[in-house]
Amino acid sequence: MKESALLTSLMLVGVAFIWGGTFIAGRHLSVNTPPLLSASIRFLIASVTLSFFLPNKQNKSLLNKNTKIRIFFLGLTGIFFYNICFFYGFQFISASRGSLIVALNPAGIGLVSFIFLHEQIRPIKWLGIMLSLIGVFIIVISKDPTALSMDVNTWKGDLFLLGCVACWVTYSVASKRVISEIGTIHSVFYSLVVGTILLGVTALSTNQANLVNILELSYSQWFSLLFLGVFGSALAYVWYYKGIEKIGATQAGVYIALVPVFGIILGMLLLKEPITLPMIIGGIIVILGIYFCNWSKY
């Protein structure tokens, strides 16, 4: 393997490790930190950090009214609603379990792109989508197979994390038009700014973002917020899109299969989370599904 190819692989493995770690940080923060406060600080840090990676030249004329509306929609779905589901969801669910449910993203993106954008899906990708759906179903019902008809509160955490999937699929499909107009990094940055403003206003209006709550944040909570903001929401995106530039979206996407693997390992090591046999079986099926979703050979 050439040195440049090795560095690209290591960079993408690093991205998967960071994104796997975001579930651990999210779970840690959700225990004692107001969700909207966590989300607001995370993306304030992320917006500032990502601003240092913006290309020097940006054609302002590309930001017409329609593009601005689309950017607002991206910030609303991919940042605002996603993080409400993310931080509220981890109040009820383990980091390991959450990382496996959110691993449904590639299958969801492929399915929605097929339905609304009429993108062609090859047989191997259909197999990946079906495996991902089956794997997540196994993971969700493994919590308590007899409780499927019980109160929705039983599945609150799972439903919030499935909300994350819905938000991210919507964001990913809707962002394709914006990325083609203003580029990837600017698209991510502007949606981060919009999401940060929406989260901040909501946190202030619900009194979650107040001086007392901010001063009560511990060192470990600040570390988690810095990790989420600097690495999980800024640096990892830069590395991931650099990886796409080097080896293409399909090959880079295969590395995403490592995200739930790292999420499970870190959950076991740092949070002492138990892993059940159905979670292992469902996780393996999901990871295979992700791999097939990103495999373009057939």
Automatic annotation (TrEMBL):
Keywords: Cell membrane, Membrane, Transmembrane, Transmembrane helix. The keyword Cytoplasm does not apply. It comes from the Bacteria. It is found in: Cell membrane. The chain crosses the membrane at residues 36-55, 71-93, 99-117, 124-142, 154-175, 187-207, 219-240, 252-271, 277-295. One of its GO terms (cellular component) is plasma membrane. Its main location: membrane. Residues 9-140, 156-293 form the EamA domain. It is a multi-pass membrane protein. Belongs to the EamA transporter family. This is DMT family transporter. It comes from Woronichinia naegeliana WA131.
